Structures are given as structure tokens and as C-alpha cells.
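User: Show me sequence and structure for the first protein, then do the same for the second.

Assistant: Starting with the first protein.
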Amino acid sequence: MLESAASLVQEHADLEKQLADPAVFGDQDKVRKLNKRYAALAPTVAAYHAWHTAQDDLAAARDPDDDRDIILEVKAGEGGDESALFAGDLLRMYLRYAERRGWKTELIDATESDLGGYKDVQVAIKAKGTPEPGDAPWARLKYEGGVHRVQRVPVTESQGRIHTSAAGVLVMPEAEEVEVTIDPNDLKIDVYRSSGPGGQSVNTTDSAVRITHLPTGTVVSCQNEKSQLQNKESALRVLRARLHQIAQDAANAEASAARRSQVRTVDRSERIRTYNYPENRISDHRTGYKSYNLDTVLDGDLDPVVQSAVDADEKARMAAVAEGA
């Protein structure tokens, strides 16, 4: 279709050249035919140029991190053990989604709950090769940041009553070492023994690491690896991603607004999405998306939900461009 439109645009340009040639005006019949055709093509040409302008504006408005891999964190919130179980369900959903898209995943750190869920879990998600524009992990999953609410009967509920709890998701583009310079003097590093569900020690050495970035107050802990050095490297990796995001927020008001939509307090009020098990329903409160296939979404069929956020964001960006024009 675009190729056909391009040929019409070229024809319109050729007609314009002919109509500018004084020699043509000796033949009034030809002039009338040329003018008629030129006028007929004008709407198509205008639409073609408007489409290209819109595409250029949209490309200019895209986040420069859209081609990046990510670090995704899921944290249990209000709801105790049920929230931790839901955090585990969300993690599985993202891992299955990554699998469907052919991405690689790597567990960075996790603190398990007593019933098998997660109090806090961090995972790296990486594209294989060079993804197409808009298909990298950050481009697809950056809208997942925020509070996710679940409504269902917990496994600990003996009366069959539906409870509401929440888990928080934080998504950060992964930063390379050369992109974020961290002064060792700005770090406070504590070591301690790793702990498992219930708080029991799972290691006889002080292998767990907690790093505090003093200038920003950012704290990162890692305990999954067996050695202190490995945990330190994992923690620095997450710290770089967080500092990169902080720098982006400070430099870009739009990124800052997007960041504020992500999780700050993991309670039930700042929700972006609700997962209703009794109705098999998923609802995104930012885009208005709603469907009754929650089971398949939790199994990784997340693209329609993600696409609703992508479309809503692009619509808002285009509206902003139009207002500023």
C-alpha cells in the first residue's frame, strides 16, 4: 500500500513540474487534464506526508532505552503469605512470557516465603540477538511497573472467602558498567549470613551482601549466590540499573512521570492492574483493557495486555506532539 502511495506522490511531483513548464500552456486541454489529475492526487499526497511526519514524530518521542534488556523485580506487599504467593505467580507469568518471545532469563536474587512464594525476587530478562524496534524487553515490559492486585480465595482461607492482596513490580533497563560510574567511596557494604523461609540461616559463612549507595540512599541486597564476591557482583549489577534509572528520571521529565507510576508503596490503592480469579478476569486500570482469560495470561499470554499499554502510550505521545505543533 505504501509503495502504491509513494508512486502517486511521485506522479504528483511530476505533474507539478509539468504545470510549471511554460511550454505546456500552449495546449489548454492538456493543462486542464494535468490540473484535474493534480487536484485528484492532492489528498493522497497530503495524507502520505502526514503519515510520514507522524511516524517521524513517534520515532523521535520513543524512549532511548527501548532496545535494552531489563532487570525486573517483584515484591510481596499487603496480604502476607498470600501476597508472596501472588508474587510467585507474577514471576512465573513474566518468565513464561519471556519464553514465548524467545528471551533469556536469569534469576539474580530471591527471598522465598514460608509457603513457597517470594517476598522479593529479581530476574534479568535479555533478548537474543538484535531485536526489532519495539520488541526488546524494556520496550515491551516497561509498562509493567506498579502495583498488581489479586482477588482470590487464599490457600490459607478455610471459609472460602475471597481476599484482596497486592504485589509490586519494578522494571529497570539494565545498564552496562561503562555507562554508570560508581565511586567505591560512595558505597557502604555489609555482609551477613543468607537466610531462607522463616528466617533460618542457610549458609555458615557471611556470603550475603547489602550495598548502600550513600549519595542516593539506594539499598540493594543479594544472597542467592554461594560466595560473597558473586553476591557483590549481582548487587552491583542491580545498583547500576537503579542508578541509571535515577539519572534518566532526573534528565527527562517524561521518564520521571513514568517512574512515578511504578511501585512506591505496595498497598492496594496504587494499583495498575487487577487479577480476579473467580471471574477469570484481568483488568488494566490505566488503559481500560479487560478480558476473561486470566488463566492464559498467567501462563504467559501477556501480549494483548502489554499492547494495550503500548498503544495508549503512543496515542498520548502523538497527542502531545500535536499539541506542541
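Switching to the second protein now.
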Amino acid sequence: MNKIYPSDLTDSQWHNIKDFYGSPKKTGRPREVEFRQIVNAVLYLVFTGCQWRFLPADFPKWQTVYYYFAKWRKDGTWFRIHETLRSQERIRQGRNKHPSAGCADSQSVKTTAVPSSRGFDGGKKIMGRKRHILVDTLGLIIALTVTTAAVQDRDGLKKLLRTFGVHRKKLRKVWVDGGYRGKVIEWVKQRFRYHLEVVLRADDVKGFIVLPKRWIVERTFAWLNNHRRLSKDYERFAKTSEAMIQIAMIRLMLRRLQPF
């Protein structure tokens, strides 16, 4: 009998997303593994931060788990689940499924010795990658992209806004920090018709202070940091890093939508 781990999906949580993985084919070789166990293994890896080869023996073989993880990343399954759950969570909280306002920021994280694309962030003094995210007023991710840490926030924002489509029809205002000042404000206004509002810290204020609106995206980064796989960027490819972030948010939203 398989052990039950805290990261495992409950019956109601699995029922919410099982249709995204498809039904077994009526012809051909019968499926030997349950997709629910595959998903549980991926959630375990993201939450605990273990290596693929160190997945507990209760789960299917790590090669099988990785195969399906990569397959669902390439065919957009993780992305579709993430988008659907965000709409469900917004509706549950009495919001329109398409947000009208958001907050954007970036987070520089170190990479490991795994060969990968990386760069140096001169401001944060970090060699690694940079996560650019746009969240709604609930802190749920609307769009994300991962670049080398050498990419400036303004250039990262341009790439970020090119990654999403259907949400832009209602989005009107995006709060950002001082790193996004300059020509990018007019560029965003002309190309996407969004208003970038820069929220700055007062010069005469000392110590820690919660800045209006900007705390929302900082809280989202804190949610991501609760998953040990995201404490650094351990992935070889940036697209894999993006999938890991989506899976972390899927876990968070499922626990809200279906607590039991």
C-alpha cells in the first residue's frame, strides 16, 4: 500500500483536474501507472525539493514521472490547468475571471552547477536567473517568464506582456516599482493600452514599510519560496522553471478550492 504524503492530492482535488489528463485509450497497451500517482510524485518533488532520482519508491519510477512531467509541459497541460484553476478561484472570491488590474515584479534567484542559461544581476549581485511575474489583485499569477538574471526588469516586462493573450482584453492598470520607470511606460501604453503606475518608497521613511499594491506580488514570491524546488533555480531549461512555478501555484489554488 502506498504511503500518503502531505503533498498528495485529496479525492476532491484530483476530481477537479483529472479530465485534463485524458482517459485511457481503448486500444493498444494498457496503461501501467495511474496519472494521479504521477501528479502526486511531481507535487512531492516541487514541495520537498528532492531530485528526480530520489523520489520515494511508493511513486512510479522516476523516469516515468519525468516523462509525463515533460510531456505535459510541452503540450501545455500544466498551463491549461493553471489557467482554469485561477479563473475558478477568482470566481469563488466573487471576482470576474478576467482581471482588470495587476502588479508586476521580478525575482532574481541563484542557479546550481547544472549546465543552463544564466546571467549576472548587478543590482542584486546574483548569478542565476530572473523570474518575471504579473499577478492579479489576489496574488494569482496571470503571466510569467524566466530569463537570465542579466535581463533588466524593463526588458523582462516587455517579454512578459507578450506571453499572454485573452486576459489583456480587461487588464487596464499594472502597478510596478521604480525599476520600470522610463520609456517602457509609454511603450506599454501604446502597444497594450495598459497604464503602468509606479509605486515608490518615500525618501524620508526608514526601515521596513509595506508599500501599497506592491506587497501583493511580494507575497506571491513568498508563496513560491515555500516550495523547496523553487528556493533556487535547479532546472536546465527556463521553460522547465516556468512549469515548476505553475505547478506550485496549482497546488496552492487546489488547496483553496478543495481544502478536503
